[in-house]
Amino acid sequence: MKKMMISLFLICVPIASQAVELCEKELASTYSVSTKNSQHTLSIYFDQGRVLQVFEEKKLADEWNQIPDGRLKLTRFFDQEKHAIEYQPGDAIDGGTLTWDQITMGVPSSVKDSMTLVSRSGSGCDIVEAFQSADGQMKFIWNPEKKRLIEYQTPSVHWNLREQPLMTSQAAFALRDDYRTIDYADIGDSEDDPFVRKMIRMGFVSHGASGFYDEHGHALDGGHNH
Questions:
Q1: pTM given for the model
Q2: Which one, of 84, 54, 91, 87, lies nearest residue 195 by Cα?
Q3: Which of its termini does the chain have fewer beta carbons within 10 Å around, N or C?
Q4: Contact (Cβ atoms closer than 8 angstroms) between residue 30 and residue 164
Q5: Residue 166 resides in a domain
Q6: Are 40 and 55 in contact (CB under 8 A)?
């Protein structure tokens, strides 16, 4: 009997491990985001607790880390200049009302709370739920097990998951490993730096646009209102 129990345990362990692995979050997702006047691409990558949001057309990438007290830490990469600005939690650009759920999905799962579940398909880690507003003008489709957005649509914006991400998560992070990084607190002492001067003119530092983007990909002035 003891040998039989050990054998059953050894059989169950790999099965359980496989189930956990299958339900792990996708490491890379790329979305086409369309509005009435524009279309852009947003990619979201994961690596060991880090999240990288890449705004392809704007050549910007935001790396987010959640520190132990729950606050959010941001490093913004400027791909064209191959520079980055590192912000500490509490800096003016620390995310405002952004939540970790919103960062990891692009559109927070809370938007479905005012909608009604209209369908549920699949099983296990491949469940797909579809929600729709009462007037039928808004819909939210996601995989609740992997916390992965599949489609989001309102009268003004349409998010659609692409079949293949633009690159692997490992490649997306590695691409920016060698960028020169400036601490936001040191900006005032670095105004002779050509990169810093350019960022000030563009409004990413101290004046003008906050550097955050709404669900349409437009820069937000002042406070963040994602």
A1: 0.76
A2: 84
A3: N
A4: yes
A5: yes
A6: yes
